[in-house]
Amino acid sequence: MTERPIRRIVIVGGGTAGWMTAAALANALQGSCRIDLVESGEIGSIGVGEATIPPIKYFNRTLGIDENAFLAATQGTFKLGIEFVDWSRYGQRYFHPFGQFGTEFDAVPLHHYWLRERERGDDKPLQDYALAWAAARAGKFDLPVADRRQVQSSLDYAYHFDASLYARFLRQYAEQRGVRRTEGKLVDVALRAGDGFIQSVTLDGGTVIEGDLFIDCSGFRGLLIEGALETGYDDWTHWLPCDRAVAVACAHRKEATPYTRSTAHAAGWQWRIPLQHRMGNGHVYCSQFISDDEAAATLLGNLEGEPLGSPRQLRFTTGRRKQSWNRNCVAIGLSAGFMEPLESTSIHLIQTAITRLLALFPDRDFDPFAAREFNRLTQTEYERIRDFVILHYHAVQREEPLWRQTATMAIPDTLQYKIEQFRSGGRLVAESMELFQNSNWLAVLVGQEVWPQRHHPLTDMRSQVDAAGRLRGLRRVIEEAVHHMPTHQQYIDRHCRAA
Ligand code: FAD
């Protein structure tokens, strides 16, 4: 048993990262140490970050949060995946579904049979074997089932929600469990003589808050991890060149669709995220190829409803902090890095950083091996996600300067390897620890039109497998399953309608 337990944790920042961290620590530590959160209403939080990926469900479940109550409180909707429009070339569309492509019917993965049938002239797209796409296209939603024999088990989902309402929801949760919030602007950070650990932070009114462990959730500013500790940043702009975004919400014209849409433009791409009360939109772009005014005009010219307010500009540098855990400070959220929002991974990275912090939770001796392991795992996680996002930019045939640059740039060896494996024989080689698994890589590789040169040789040797019949059957059961689902709007109205 440790004799020097952490007595006081100070979280700087009350955006999504700050309140997710506060809520999770309050839940895990059960009142055994004091937790302070400092935030500045004057500075505010970034306010975007509305689309998530499936593991968010486990974060909420660990906290004992009821799904329907949470969606009602955050104007949330369901997300079955992302539709990519005009990405590999104009006029081309594909869907990156959550969950699996159908249910496997043989030891050889389904996509090899699909590839073989395609070579024989069957033009059904891969996404037709994903229940998530069939449901999304029809505007339907239902919860997946546990029985692996049923196609409804192949479905997975995440959420879209209003980020500021989520932070408010978690704030209430955290404060009910003892987290103390202090309003104020951080103006100074005191470091301990000798080892340079953070001793205290000072707010603009003069309040000094001391702590044993400091969590930097101050957003892009990285007030502690960079401002005070000068940890350094790995800049990934040469791989992920978009550096700005302009965002605006608009009114809904139709019912909320259960998926995110990402449409590529000449110098970036535009998101469309449906919530219950409005549609979130943003244009992520590379300032080297388009001005801020042109980017805003592109955004406004591609809205599906009346804008609600004026567009808001945001700037960022893609990359990651060299160490997320430095001395007695752990950076969580945008202070730890940002890979741009294309695959909605930022909130997930907050979640995994919290999980990792709890797994490697220190005492006041701060065993350096815990920090090293935290940083090693974080680096691997960021780099694997980075590769997946780069794939979207690299496997393109568009002719505009941004896309010519990303199509011809040198890419990380780890990504090159995955592309070559797929191109040569349809092999998917994601490791078990990776966030994006083989089915995710498959969706995006095929969607971005990276075509394998051959299918798996075993498909031709297993003549007893009626693959064409099984694929036909799969399409039929998917259609039937969708037929019996409620519409997404009906599901929300029944279970999680905001007041
Ligand atoms: P912030 O929201 O910036 O919060 C920082 C906090 O620190 C605020 O409370 C602020 O008041 C406080 N603070 C700062 N300075 C001081 C100071 N001096 N004193 C006191 N307090 C201070 N993520 C997704 O998962 N899905 C998405 O769809 C998505 N879309 C995005 C789109 C864009 C264009 C961008 C830029 C990001 C997107 N993200 C998305 C990322 C997501 O917004 C963030 O991961 C998330 O909001 C967490 O931000 P944060 O809490 O780290 O920082």
Automatic annotation (TrEMBL):
Top-level taxon of the source organism: Bacteria
Keywords: Oxidoreductase
Enzyme Commission number(s) of this protein: 1.14.19.-
Gene3D superfamilies associated with the record: FAD/NAD(P)-binding domain
A Pfam family recorded for this sequence: Trp_halogenase
Record's protein name: Tryptophan halogenase family protein
Lineage of the species this protein comes from: Bacteria, Pseudomonadati, Pseudomonadota, Gammaproteobacteria, Lysobacterales
Keyword Oxidoreductase: yes
A GO MF label: oxidoreductase activity
